[in-house]
Amino acid sequence: MSVHLTDLQLAIVRVLWTRGATTVVEVQEALMPERPLAHTTVATLLSRLEKRGVISRAIIGRQFHYRAEVSEPDVRRSMVGELTDMLFAGRPAALISHLIAEQEIRPGDLDEVKQLIAAAERRVAPNGR
To answer: How far is it, in rounded angstroms, from Cα 71 to Cα 84?
Structure first.
């Protein structure tokens, strides 16, 4: 499933990933104070995400409770894949090169990348060499 979320949609889904089944009011409160949204705005956004199959809702008591139907790794994979296709002609190496050249590298970042590359090389090496 290809999932593309706006910044605001992603913030809402992150609330659901963190809290599990959540009401509109709880989502609204979790977004505060960085995103002061009206109750109706949050409800509309949740409804649109539900129509896309990104989240689902169930009635518990007298309120709708929403939960994520997509995992964070699946959303990340989909959105990074789209970004790689759109900006780097589908070439992960070009994306990685860009990140290394254009982003601030913190101590330990390059060592972590080297370990990830080594692990990937072991996975794709013929006959487990």
So the answer is: 20
